[in-house]
Every structure is written in structure tokens, then in C-alpha cells.
Amino acid sequence: MNVLIFGPPGSGKTTHSKTIIERYGLFYISSGDLIRAEITKRTELGKEMEKFLKKGDLIPDTIINVLVLSKLRRVRNNFIIDGYPRSAEQVLALENYLYDHGIKLELALDIFIPKELSIERISGRRICSKCGAVYHVKYSPPKVDGKCDICGGDVIQREDDKPEIVAKRYDIYIKNMKPIIKFYKKQGIYVKINGNGSVGDVWERIRPLLDFIHNREEKRREHEL
């Protein structure tokens, strides 16, 4: 089963991706993780990408394509890709790769939330600068304000999590996703899920769909044997 998962900032797509990989045994490819790894390592590529993120701008397609497709070459099949593609150029690069390698996508899953909820969820997020633990000022604050429960490190707000940056990221996301959504609708694999509510509520909207696809693929493989 090969899945794309989309969603505006704060939609919970990464949280649900982790549940999906555990339940269905898929490989996880996250454009965000790949970007942050380069930034953390302070590579020249990472420094360049950090400049775009701090302004709330999209990182150029050529850079993202290289990061994601290089990872996909090592995974090959049974994957979920989180946060990619996000432009027509990225769709073209991905589709060309999949076609060349005989790989088929079963689902393009869009977890949608409104702009106001996106800003609330993301701007309230705090990250431990030492161990990377994630908190939220409203939903899951640290026990001691500004200090990580796990390691005692400083809990900070990332530059790209500030409300004005989140609002800009949301607007860019919605604009750029329109042709992508249209493309995957034509492919017959696009499904939009309401991302409002608790993690459990949203998962119960997602799970039956993935169970159906997973069971269908299992039956197909059994038939081929």
C-alpha cells in the first residue's frame, strides 16, 4: 500500500502517519523530517532551506525533489509520504519516478482543517531545544513553564511557528494544493477527511478507509500467489 498524506499546518497528518506506519507496516517518508535533518546538521543545503522557512516561503522544488526521491529510492514500495508533493512541479517529478519504477499509489489522503484552527494549533506548539520533545501551551504544556519535562532543556517556539508565519504558510499551502488535489481527483485516489476534533476522532474517520485498501491489497496478493 502506497499512500500520500496531505494537510495544512497543524492538521495532524504527521501524528496520523505514525499510527498508519505502525498499524500497516509502511515505510515513512517525511519531507519535513528530511528538511529538519539537513538544518540540524548545519549543512550548506540546510542553511539555505532555513532562510526560506524563517520567511514562511516554500523551499524550491528542485531541492525538495532531490531529498524525497533519494529517500524513496531506498524504500521502493509500501510507503507513506508526508507533506509531498506540494506543487505541480513536485507532482510531475514524483509521477515520473513512480512510472519509471512501476509503482502505483493507492491513496492521496487530505486531512483538512480551517485557517483559524491551523494557527491555534501551530502557534501554540513549543519544542525542547535540547531533546526535541513537543509541547503545546493549551493542550499539553510542560509541567514547569519553559522547561522540558524529559531533559530540563529550554522549551522554545520555532521561528516558523509564529502566528503570522503560520498564516502565510496556510495561504500558500491552500493556493498550491488546488491543482494537486485536482490531479489526484482525476486519478480517482483523492479522499478529503475532516481534521477537526481529537486525534482519536479523526483517526476513526481515517481507519476504515485504510483498512479497506489494506485488505484489498492483501486479497490481491493472495490471488496472485
UniProtKB/TrEMBL annotation:
GO terms for molecular function: AMP kinase activity; ATP binding; zinc ion binding. It catalyses: AMP + ATP = 2 ADP. It comes from Palaeococcus pacificus DY20341. ATP binds at residues 10-15, 125, 134-135, 197. Catalyzes the reversible transfer of the terminal phosphate group between ATP and AMP. Plays an important role in cellular energy homeostasis and in adenine nucleotide metabolism. This is Adenylate kinase. Its EC number is 2.7.4.3. Residues 125-160 form the Adenylate kinase active site lid domain. Residues 30-59 are annotated as: NMP. Pathway: Purine metabolism; AMP biosynthesis via salvage pathway; AMP from ADP: step 1/1. Zn(2+) binds at residues 128, 131, 148, 151. Consists of three domains, a large central CORE domain and two small peripheral domains, NMPbind and LID, which undergo movements during catalysis. The LID domain closes over the site of phosphoryl transfer upon ATP binding. Assembling and dissambling the active center during each catalytic cycle provides an effective means to prevent ATP hydrolysis. Some bacteria have evolved a zinc-coordinating structure that stabilizes the LID domain. The gene is adk. Belongs to the adenylate kinase family. The keyword Nucleotide-binding applies. The keyword 4Fe-4S does not apply. It is found in: Cytoplasm. GO terms for biological process: AMP salvage. Monomer. GO terms for cellular component: cytoplasm. AMP binds at residues 31, 36, 57-59, 83-86, 90, 158, 169. Residues 124-161 are annotated as: LID. Pfam families: ADK, ADK_lid. It comes from the Archaea. Keywords: ATP-binding, Cytoplasm, Kinase, Metal-binding, Nucleotide biosynthesis, Nucleotide-binding, Transferase, Zinc.
